[in-house]
Amino acid sequence: MADKKAVKRPDNQRKIFVLDTSVILYDHSAVNSFKEHDVAVPIQVLEELDNFKNGNETRNFEARSFFRMIDRLSGQLLISEWIPLNGAGSGKFKIALDELPAGLNAEKIFGSAKFDHRILNSALVLKEQHPEQRVVLVSKDIGLRLKAKSLDLQAEDYETGKVKNVDELYTGRTLCRNFPAPLLEQVRAGAAASQELLQNLPATNANHFYILKSGRKGLNAFFSVSDGMLLPVQNRQAFKISPKNPEQAFAMHALLDPALKLVTIQGNAGTGKTLLALACALEQRKDFRQIYVTRPIVPLSNKDIGYLPGDIKSKVDPYMAPIWDNLRFIKEQFAAEDKMVYKIDELVSTDKITIAPLAFIRGRTLTKIFFIVDEAQNLTPHEVKTIISRAGEGTKIVFTGDIYQIDTPYLDTASNGLSYLIENAKHHPLYAHITLQKGERSELANVATELL
């Protein structure tokens, strides 16, 4: 039985972090994230990862990468014993074997049907074997963390890559009230930004949008950190799609600006994220070799799409339907122009526009591609990094999503890839972001966002 009267250990004491499968599938290099502390991975995690090693999804990549990394790390050493991690000042690593604790037994308490309970036992054994160290279970699974705490075992989420305060996440725009009228006219005229003008603007260390108000007068503007210019944002049309509010005008400005190679658009359902991105991509179709529109597949009840009937096209089409709906809406704007409708259909039939799940595009080098990743909140930070690292010359990448509507297990508003990208890329000169808040789908749709 665990001694609940044990002396409280100091916070700077060396710890043993026990990682479960969810952490490895989120970040295969997680064992290197704990500085001078030791890291143990229960042997049951290896068995679970072995079931994920085949396939083209990110979790399959993470499983394979973890196996390769541990194989390189161990060399000729046995990983059932503590071995040093890479780097000076790092802790040690081992695979914790399937042993039973002398005291509390998670399998007896919760049942023996789940690997999770054997993982808990591995952590309890380490706690008994190393009373001089604090043992902490690290898991993305809230339920497992609560079970651990009920067994007097410390547990925490994997924090690497998490945004500290989502409520203060960068929005990409600022409302400036009582803006000096002479400076407002200076911006409207397109004059170079003076020192006085810049002193009246917050956030001039990033590409940023402004709603400038001076009495009854107002102006939408964009500050380019590369050239120090503050220029008016016009209501531009793209493939007969026009902005319905200042936020959408900002989004279209970023999407149509060739100097901005990386764009994120975050917002609730119905704010027009995907429609605007697709329309702006079509508007610039002659500037790019191809238009890729993709989204991660998150199956219902987290079952693989292999469970669905039909061929591969039949399996994935339901997940891509929202993108096809947006393309159909754009085609409807040209109902009276048969030639343009035919042109859009031709773009699809010749693969000038490719609409496919993200797993189908994985591994390609994206050269001169307008690449739209929809539902990006369902990606991990590592997935987002991998996608951007595929960008070749002349490519523009757009991530759209709603960080409050996450379907992927073990991701939340703070740990998903879209939040991570917004937080970490906000000062880069090639990047722009805008958060859309006003729904434009219909008045009825806004009821759900505002009241329910």
TrEMBL record:
InterPro entries, per database record: P-loop_NTPase, PhoH, PhoH2-like, PIN-like_dom_sf, PIN_dom
GO molecular function: ATP binding
Keyword Transferase appears in the UniProt entry: no
Residue ranges of every copy of the PIN domain listed in the record: 15-146
Tagged with keyword Lipid biosynthesis: no
Keywords, alphabetical: ATP-binding, Nucleotide-binding
Family: Belongs to the PhoH family. In the N-terminal section; belongs to the PINc/VapC protein family.
Name of this chain's protein: Ribonuclease
Organism encoding this protein: Pedobacter yulinensis
